[in-house]
Write a structure and sequence with these properties.
With 222 residues, this protein is mainly alpha-helical. The chain folds into 2 domains: 70 residues, Orthogonal Bundle (Arc Repressor Mutant, subunit A); 142 residues, Four Helix Bundle (Hemerythrin (Met), subunit A) (Up-down Bundle). The chain is built from 9 helices and 2 strands; from the N terminus they run αααββαααααα. Strands 1-2 form a two-stranded antiparallel sheet. The relative contact order is 0.13.
């Protein structure tokens, strides 16, 4: 493997790890991201880390503070409401397109994604909090699968970035609405199988707005 390819693979791995650690809350909101410490933890050079953090800044996950360096972006109730509104805008636009174009292979991926999510929701309902990150990964996978047949990779990429910001707020607040959310997911699955886009958009709106209201009520983002 060439030196250039090795350097690229190191940078890509570091980017993926840092991004995931911000989204899933291991690098807490507002945390100063010291380049020397990151170099130790992620095995990348300081110059590579500057490029990674600048890239994450353009995604809204990091804040560049000029000569003072970088911080993980802060969270706020207003920020969560904005991200949720953007998520709804994209997802309710993509759902009808995906339901119209989805084939048998798409249906199988939606069913499989829901199966994994439902398994983790049952564990959470039973009081198991150890699998919180995996539960949210499956939540993301399920919602992504619902719209993946929409026919626009640009839309899917944009949605993925917005969903990760939404997911970050959920991880900070550790939001789990229990059986209410699980039932909404089951209804979304039924809507996908019957191609009922209107009902799916209504349930999705209830689902996202309910999560926002629940989170703000807890005061976890204050």
């Amino acid at each position: 493997m060439s030196i250039e390819l090795i350097a690229t693979s190191i940078a890509d791995r570091a980017y993926d790890r840092i991004r995931a650690d911000i989204v899933f809350g291991r690098l807490a909101p507002g945390l100063r991201l010291r380049l020397d410490r990151l170099a130790e933890d992620y095995g990348a050079s300081v110059s590579t880390l500057r490029e990674i953090l600048s890239r994450l800044s353009s995604e809204g996950l990091v804040v560049a503070e000029g000569q003072r360096g970088f911080r993980a972006a802060h969270v706020s109730p207003e920020g969560f409401e904005d991200v949720a509104a953007m998520r709804l805008l994209l997802e309710t636009y993509a759902l009808p397109l995906s339901f119209t174009a989805g084939d048998l292979e798409w249906e199988s991926r939606v069913v499989a994604a829901h199966h994994k999510l439902a398994f983790m929701e049952r564990r959470m309902l039973a009081g198991d909090q150890e699998g919180t990150e995996l539960w949210k990964r499956y939540d993301r996978e399920f919602h992504q699968s619902l719209i993946e047949a929409c026919g626009s990779q640009t839309l899917l990429d944009l949605y993925g970035g917005v969903f990760d910001q939404y997911l970050r707020y959920q991880m900070v607040a550790v939001v789990f609405r229990g059986e209410i959310a699980a039932e909404e997911h089951r209804t979304l699955l039924d809507c996908a199988m019957t191609r009922n886009a209107d009902k799916a958009c209504a349930v999705l709106t209830q689902h996202v707005n309910g999560c926002v209201a629940y989170t703000l009520k807890t005061g976890a983002l204050a």
